[in-house]
Design a protein that fits this description.
201 residues, alpha+beta, Glycoprotein, Type 4 Pilin, three-stranded antiparallel β-sheet, elongated
Length: 201
């Protein structure tokens, strides 16, 4: 009986020792990822990145932000124009040049107020378009009872407030200097506008 116990102990020790050796070799030599596992993980990450970019669309978000600034700028000018109207019972005349439509006190270039400059006391600075290739455009009728301010939105027809499905606002056509179209930069159509209450862009 003692012999049987002794051989059982030896067998048990051998089995335990074998398991310990196997465990020890797994710890000291950890198994790395296989090529297939790496390719699978990279593929999944690629698909997730593509989905995130499609949903977020950074360029679209940037354009939306720029267009939001344009709308805020025009709303500020609108408020200033209403204060001017309260003072003079008319809106200021417009100075129209080549690709230029600016607020002016007498309709000439001598008194034109360039976008980005002070229009005291009504605005510290008239806003400018966030893109150098674009500009805002002002228009008023000869009686000073109507005005429009225009901008060119980057999102075009994707913006619900845009004129004419993203094309030039109807009121800009033929109302520029010498019967030309009012533009918001060289060959840049004005596709968004705000106006005095008695007209629409």
């Amino acid at each position: 009986m003692g012999k049987r116990n002794s051989s059982n102990l030896r067998l048990e020790f051998h089995v335990k020792n074998k398991n310990f050796s196997s465990l020890n070799s797994q710890i000291s030599n950890p198994r790395g990822f296989t090529l297939i596992e790496l390719i699978t993980v990279i593929g999944v990450l690629g698909v997730l990145s593509a989905i995130i970019l499609a949903v977020v669309n950074p360029l679209e978000q940037f354009n939306k932000s720029q267009d939001s600034k344009r709308k805020q700028d025009l709303a500020q000018v609108q408020r200033a124009l209403e204060v001017y109207y309260n003072d003079f019972h008319r809106y200021p005349p417009v100075y129209q040049g080549s690709n230029i439509n600016e607020i002016s006190t007498d309709g000439t270039s001598n008194t034109a107020i360039a976008w980005g400059h002070s229009w005291s006391p009504y605005m510290d600075v008239l806003p400018i378009d966030p893109k150098a290739a674009k500009n805002y455009a002002y228009w008023s009728d000869s009686t000073g009872q109507s005005y429009a301010i225009y901008a060119s939105l980057d999102r075009g027809s994707h913006d619900p407030q845009v004129c004419n499905n993203g094309n030039a606002c109807q009121s800009t056509i033929g109302t520029g200097i010498g019967g030309t179209d009012i533009t918001c930069g060289t060959n840049v159509p004005c596709n968004y506008g705000v106006t005095s209450p008695n007209i629409s862009p």
